[in-house]
From TrEMBL:
GO biological process: protein processing
Record-given protein name: Peptidase
UniProt cross-references to Gene3D superfamilies, sorted A to Z: Metalloenzyme, LuxS/M16 peptidase-like
GO terms for MF: metal ion binding; metalloendopeptidase activity
Annotated Peptidase M16C associated domain residues: 464-713
Length: 975
């Protein structure tokens, strides 16, 4: 260990230390003696360094002050007097993570970078932002990021605007978000969890500048802070910098921010709340029932881990007894659970969707009966053991899909640290796993259920009822309230609001001075990595089957990707192929029930995933490879079990159980119903690409078109069940044949040998199949302008086209332009001035060009902003320093640490889309050497997209009808 207990390093006293095997780190807990700041440092050899500073923020109202403060602190500070240093950092940093996050009881400012200089720069900007923000002296920042009255002239309607105001209108558009808000309010009436820290749009406009400023003075002090450092760094210099530049200027003080413990409710509370649906939607099967259970505030890490396992076994695992009982009783279409331990008192939720209002009593009586019987009679030991193995595999693999693992460790540590418990314990799990395994036969999990659920009265049963026109009704109430307020104002007061609106817009549109921009520290192009990793695959033939291997150390885990090309299918078969991804492993096979399959998968593998996708050639979206992919992973010692399981589900799944098939369809339809609006941007972009891209048209069959297909299947299931079974079996037989098969292994020689030895488990049962010619499917293309109606309060506004159709080629400069548009033009026009939560662009090498806004209060205004893009690029003026900044920011995407499985999947992507290492090196050089003139030359390309563009929008029903002239077709979402 580098330090000892009691050591003082630059004002920080070491109060505890330990080597944590689970995260391969030496951990030091420290306290800054002068300021009272807490610090946790995890020392290891990971070059992806992480820093965050968190504050315990415990609001007592729903004005959204923590959330608005999180946005506002990053809008200028003492050392960095720009309007938005955060954006300038995003433009020109090699960060692997850069964000700020508001939780119900804390606010976190995390950054990560693999570059030492960049890491220091990011840390400096964030520390200055939280301790010396400009927002305390400039009310326009609160107006922009939080809320303000907007009035362009005295005769115009008075409205609200603001980034967080509009963000929360979008966030609280879904019934599940509204439900959670209401349930937490009832579950924790006396604590901070009973209010909405993100802000309720109906309450946000009551936040005053005085309250806003006072919130910072109260909570944003070092004595109320939690500083986290992770990775391979010069810790002496880092601590010296934090001490000398920041913490030494503060004296410790008492900050009252403790999260109170809620006294248990004397009995289960039953509440109801409405949520809006569009006028054309049916009320049938739209009700949600959920049981929220609050646990106590001294639950151990072992008990918490056990509860996650318990939740999975009882509800989320295929064959889970509680889920099965609720579905068998006909209470709803889908049952899910969630265990949240990022609260002082963890909360367990059991939720049924696709239900009716009169099913509430049946829901709760079924839940109570099943849980009591399980506690009395015992929980299936095999299911518990399988779930425990699954949990251990996930914890040991630590695969965060490209996110810095050090950041996730820090977030995990905060789950204890924030409540004055030892953060190191949150990172340890080996002993807990061992204890849980020893207790499998001792009634441990049953006693847990009895203690924290059955004997616990701290519960809320909530029913969410659909109501047509509720969103429009609330919009009307807001408009009437604003109109009444406007009529109460004098002409002078109205002019004052007009001037305030004008002044804010002038500030938002103003350019930063060169001097202010230079305060942001910047790397140079010399700091950029120029080499391109050659991720070539080793290819061989295994008894007529193409085998590709990606060589990498996987620490004893075998990653196996199995692909079947889909050239043998007809267009109308594609949705059935996609449906198979939900059915395989979830229906009986000739040998096992679906519940047994789930247990075997959890016991011996790291999971199986199925998906349908299309890999388009990098320079031509009309040339693509459609595949059905199976992704599996297991300890190399269990590869035989993994491959045996895959072979069984591919070749021996029975589709005949129509009751189970109906159950799966209803569950999937319910998941779509609940998530469609929150997935709005990705669905809009996929739909949009289908208008001009063959690969996009294929992908769209798996998106909104699939939602319509699924809805039709569910509606007519009883009449067509035999036909559905026949089609599934027919499509599976065409797909799963040796003639379509190729595989990829990721690992070292041991992994390859294990797969070769057991390949027969899959190949022997596969038919030879027919050899099909490569072709694309004939999905209709053509310019379309479509809108999809929802009860949401904001929009996702997309516009795009194919630039290759008009003679333009892809260059690395397009990636730099994406960065410029995202963090300059679109940021200012759509987010800052328009009030949307965000906007972004996507220019792909196959010719796809898409612009899309996110949680946007506007529609036509955003489309007009897109229209002016070519002129903006044509006349772009940037200094060499600013150009370098955008180049560096663009290259940040290549700094992300890929896991071994991600590296292997990237290699297969490059193989399938033909993107050679030479071509990638060329694009990389074009990025690194990009000039402002290279960007200006892209204006004609942009103009071609805008001149021949299509439009796709998903959003508020009322807003879309107001702007109906934009669209050729206005559609309702499936019912």
């Amino acid at each position: 260990m580098k330090f000892n207990n009691g050591d003082i390093i630059h004002g920080f006293r070491v109060t505890n230390l330990s080597h944590i095997q689970e995260v391969d780190s030496d951990a030091y807990l420290m306290q800054h003696e002068k300021s009272g700041a807490r610090l946790l440092y995890l020392a290891n050899n990971d070059d992806n360094k992480v820093f965050f500073i968190s504050f315990r923020t415990t609001p007592d109202n729903s004005k959204g002050t923590p959330h608005i403060m999180e946005h506002s602190t990053l809008c200028g500070s003492r050392k960095f007097p720009l309007k938005e240093p955060f954006v300038e950092l995003a433009k020109g940093s090699l960060n692997t993570f850069l964000n700020a996050i508001t939780w119900p009881d804390k606010t976190m400012y995390p950054i990560a970078s693999r570059n030492d200089k960049d890491f220091h720069n990011l840390m400096d900007v964030y520390l200055d932002a939280v301790f010396y923000p400009d927002c305390l002296k400039n009310p326009q920042i609160l107006m922009q990021e939080g809320w303000h009255y907007e009035l362009d002239n005295v005769d115009a309607p008075l409205t609200y605007n603001g980034v967080v105001y509009n963000e929360m209108k979008g966030a609280l558009s879904s019934p599940e978000a509204i439900m959670e808000d209401k349930a937490m309010e009832e579950l924790f009436p006396d604590t901070t969890y009973g209010v909405e820290s993100g802000g309720d749009p109906e309450v946000i406009p009551t936040l005053s500048f005085r309250e806003f400023s006072e919130f910072h003075r109260r909570f944003y002090h070092p004595s109320n802070s939690y500083i986290y450092l992770y990775g391979d760094m010069d810790i002496d210099e880092t601590l010296k910098f934090i001490d000398q530049e920041y913490l030494s200027h503060f004296d410790a003080r008492n900050v009252y921010s403790a999260v109170k413990t809620q006294s248990p409710l004397p009995k289960r509370k039953i509440v109801e709340a409405p949520f809006g649906i569009s006028e054309n939607e049916s009320l049938e099967k739209k009700t949600i029932h959920a049981l929220y259970i609050a646990l106590n505030d001294h639950i151990t890490t072992e008990e918490s881990l056990a509860f996650k396992i318990l939740s999975y076994v009882l509800v989320d695992m295929d064959g889970a007894p509680l889920k099965k009982a609720v579905l068998d009783a006909g209470i709803g279409n889908d049952v899910s659970s969630a265990y949240g331990d990022s609260y002082k008192q963890p909360v367990w939720t059991i939720e049924v969707t696709g239900s009716e209002i009169d099913k509430r009593e049946k829901f709760i009586s079924t839940v109570d009966l099943v849980l009591r019987n399980l506690a009395l009679d015992g929980i299936d030991r095999n299911m518990l053991e399988a779930a425990l193995n699954r949990t251990e595999f996930i914890l040991r693999e630590n695969d965060f899909q490209g996110k810095p693992k050090g950041l996730l460790y820090g977030v995990r540590a905060m789950d204890l640290w924030l409540y004055d418990r030892d953060p190191m314990q949150a990172l340890k799990y080996i002993d807990d796993i061992k204890e849980l395994r020893n207790n499998l036969d001792k009634g441990y999990f049953e006693n847990l259920l009895l203690k924290y659920v059955i004997k616990n009265t701290h519960q809320v049963l909530i029913t969410m009822k659909p109501e047509r026109g509720l969103t429009e009704k609330k919009n009307k109430e807001t408009a009437e309230k604003l109109a009444a307020f406007k009529s109460s104002l004098s002409h002078e007061q109205l002019e004052e609001i007009v001037e305030s609106t004008k002044a804010l817009k002038e500030r938002q549109a103003s350019m930063e001075t060169e001097g202010a921009l230079k305060t942001i520290p910047l790397l140079s192009r010399k700091d950029l990595k120029r080499e391109i990793e050659d991720d070539s695959l080793i290819e061989e033939d295994l008894n007529g089957i193409r085998h590709f291997h990606y060589e990498v150390n996987t620490m004893g885990i075998t990653y196996l990707n199995i692909f079947f090309t889909l050239y043998g299918l007809k267009e109308e078969d594609i949705p059935y192929a996609n449906l198979l991804t939900s059915i395989l492993c979830s229906m009986n096979t000739d040998k096992h029930s679906y519940a047994e399959l789930s247990r075997l998968s959890n016991a011996y593998t790291g999971g199986l995933g199925f998906n349908v996708s299309a890999y388009s050639r990098y320079d031509n979206s009309a040339d693509y490879t459609p595949v059905f992919a199976i992704r599996g992973k297991a300890l190399t010692s269990n590869v035989d079990k993994l491959m045996g399981l895959i072979g069984e589900v591919l070749c021996h799944t029975s589709f005949e159980d129509t009751a189970r098939l109906r159950e799966i369809l209803l569950q999937e339809k319910s998941e779509w119903d609940m998530s469609v609006f929150s997935r709005g941007s990705s669905l809009v972009m996929t739909r949009l690409s289908s208008y001009f891209s063959k690969a996009g048209a294929f992908a769209e069959q798996l998106a909104l078109s699939y939602y319509y297909f699924l809805s039709d299947l569910v509606r007519d299931f009883d009449a067509n069940s035999d036909e559905i079974v026949r089609r599934l079996a027919e499509v599976a037989k065409i797909i799963f044949a040796k003639s379509n098969l190729f595989i990829e292994t990721i690992g070292e020689s041991g992994e390859v040998s294990a797969v070769k030895d057991h390949l027969y488990e899959i190949a022997d049962d596969l038919p030879d199949g027919n050899v099909y010619q490569k072709h694309t499917f004939d999905f209709a293309e053509g310019n379309k302008n479509e809108a999809f109606l929802t009860s949401g309060k904001v929009q996702y506004v997309g516009e795009g086209g194919d630039f290759r159709k008009y003679g333009f080629n892809y260059t690395g400069a397009l990636r730099v332009m994406e960065t410029i548009l995202r963090y300059e033009y679109l940021w200012k026009k759509v987010r800052v001035q328009g009030g949307a939560y965000g906007a972004f662009t996507q220019f792909l090498s196959d010719g796809t060009a898409i612009l899309c806004s996110y949680r946007d209060p506007n529609l036509k205004q955003t489309l007009e902003t897109y229209k002016n893009l070519p002129e903006y690029i044509r006349t772009l003026e940037l200094s060499d320093r600013e150009m370098t900044k955008y180049v560096i920011g663009t290259m940040a995407a290549d700094e992300i640490q890929l896991t071994p499985s991600m590296k292997g999947e990237r290699a297969m992507l490059h193989y399938l889309n033909g993107n050679s290492v030479e071509n990638r090196r060329k694009v990389n050089d074009e990025i690194v050497n990009c000039t402002v003139e290279d960007i200006r030359k892209l204006a004609p390309l942009l103009q071609s997209v805008i001149d021949h563009s299509s439009i796709c929008v998903m959003g508020n029903e009322e807003k879309i009808h107001q702007d109906a002239d934009v669209f050729d077709k206005i559609l309702s979402l499936p019912d």
